[in-house]
Structure formats: structure tokens, C-alpha cells
Amino acid sequence: AINNNHKISPSNMTASEIGKVVFAVAATQLIADLLANRLIFKSEAYSRLLSSFEKAKSRREKTAAALAAKQVLQKAQEGNQQRTKLGKKQTQPVYSQKSAEKDAKKLQRETEEMSELAAEVARKHTVAGFYTSLAFFILYKILAAEYAGRV
Fold first, then answer.
1. What's residue 115's pLDDT?
2. DSSP letter at 15?
3. Long-range CB contacts (< 8 A, 24+ apart) of 60-64?
4. pLDDT score recorded for residue 61
5. Among 17, 39, 9, 23, CA closest to 127
6. Residue 99: what pLDDT?
């Protein structure tokens, strides 16, 4: 009960018309990219935002590395304390629990700051993408009206 009455016909568009559509799409993409680059990505505000993000990322990475190194030191120190014999003088831990909590809070703050800045950078990219999508939607409507029934 399959209906085989549908005949696939070749496109009624000429090579010239297809070339016009391709040119319109390419021109729209080029204009959208140039406008986004000039108005958003080369602006002073975007450059400052990107610089702030890179600095926050670097600070967070340094803090995470320092925290990891301190934790390794603490584990080594705990292992040494367990091996000491009774009666020998015990040394105070170099890395206390309070210090660990303080470093963990610092890492959390820096992670949050970096996440906020990353969201702002992403928002700038989203705005550019939105307007590009809008331009292509308008182009689609124009081309659909112009070439209706030919495709």
C-alpha cells in the first residue's frame, strides 16, 4: 500500500540562480562576520573582558597548583609523623587544617570569578551569533519568496 505516484523531478533552478543563492549566502556570512569582528570582538570592552578572563584563569590555575602541592606536602608530613618513634619530639604540621580550608575557599572564589567572566565572554559571542542567525532567517525568507516553487 505504498503510494508510488510521487515523481522526483529535477530542480527548476538554473545554474545562474543557484549561483545567486550561493553568492547571497556567502555575502551575508561575510558581512555578519565583519560586523561582529568590528563591533564586538575588536571593541575595547571585549578586549578588557577577555584580558580579565585570562588573568582570572591564570590565578585560578596557580592557586589550584599551589593547593595540590600543599596537599601532597601534608600527606608526606603525615606519613613521616606516623613513622616517628615514641619519645622523639613531634613537629607541628606545616600545613594545618585551617590553612587548607582557607586555601579551598580562595580556590572556590577564584573559580566563581573565572566562571562569571567566562559567562560574560560567552554572552558576547551569543549576541554575535544571534544577529547572524537573524540575518540568515531574513535571507531565507527573501530567497524563499523569490524562488518559491522552483526548488
1. 97
2. H
3. 60/107, 60/110, 60/111, 60/113, 60/114, 63/103, 63/106, 63/107, 63/110, 64/107
4. 96
5. 39
6. 82
Would you put residue 109 in left (φ > 0), alpha (ψ -120 to 50) or beta? Answer: alpha
Interacting residues of 91 by C-beta distance below 8 A, sequence separation 6+:
81
| SS3 sequence of 99-145 | HHHHHHHHHHHHHHHHHHHHHHHHHHHHHHHHHHHHHHHHHHHHHHH
**The C-alpha cell that represents 116 in the structure block:** 562569571
Give per-10-residue mean pLDDT for the chain (151 aa).
Answer: 51 85 95 95 96 96 91 77 57 70 92 97 95 96 85 54
Distance (Å) of CA 45 to CA 2, 35, 42, 58, 109: 61, 16, 9, 20, 23
CA distance 84 to 16: 88
Residues 6+ apart with CB under 8 A from 57: 114
- 143 and 17 in contact (C-beta within 8 Å)? no
Predicted confidence at residue 122, as pLDDT, reads 96
**Cell numbers describing residue 74:** 601534608
DSSP assignment letter at 91: P
